[in-house]
Amino acid sequence: MLKLLVRSLDDDLSKEEKKQLEIAIEKSENLRKEKEKLLKLKALVEKQEYKFKPFFAGRVMNKIEQQKDKKVIFPDFLNGFSVAFKRVVLSGAAAILLLIFSIYFSEGSFSFNSLLGVDSLSNENLVTYLLFDF
Predict the structure, then answer these.
(1) What pLDDT score does 89 carry?
(2) What is the DSSP letter of 134?
(3) Do 44 and 88 belong to one domain?
(4) Which of 15, 31, 125, 126 is most deeply buried (CB count within 10 A of its CB)?
(5) Is residue 97 assigned to a domain?
């Protein structure tokens, strides 16, 4: 009956449907309350005025047509991701180069030990360094 009540607000019902609905409304308190709520809601919606900018429908349809023409929507994401990845890689490479140059200037050599900072380690004190509790 609720579906019939909702339909009665927008469409014309047949005589038989109208009778069924009237009888159901008379018998059911809940259906009467629901009808009142729906009538208030319908009046509220009818009072609303929606104003759109000129050519709104045309712009929306144009956007829809543009989206239909696109095969894949993700290239914008992938393009942005690749640009961001390049920036991160370039800045990381620059930081590594700066670190290598600073080690070269501070140590005076460019050996593997100077890069790791193990020039002062010897076999005698290696056990001490490994067992030291930092």
Answers:
(1) 93
(2) -
(3) no
(4) 31
(5) yes
Q: Which two structure tokens, joined as six digits, stand for 82?
A: 């690749």
**CB of 21 closer than 8 Å to CB of 4:** yes
pTM exceeding the 0.85 threshold for the entire prediction: no
CA distance 78 to 73: 10
User: What domain range is 20 assigned to?
Assistant: 2-50
Q: Is residue 88 part of a domain?
A: yes
Contact 82, 75 (CB under 8 A): no
Rounded to an integer, what distance in angstroms lies between the CA atom of residue 90 and that of residue 94? 6
Residue 11 lies in a domain: yes
Domain count, the chain: 2
Name the residue type at position 28: S
Asked if residue 7 lies in contact with residue 35, where contact means CB atoms within 8 angstroms, the answer is: no
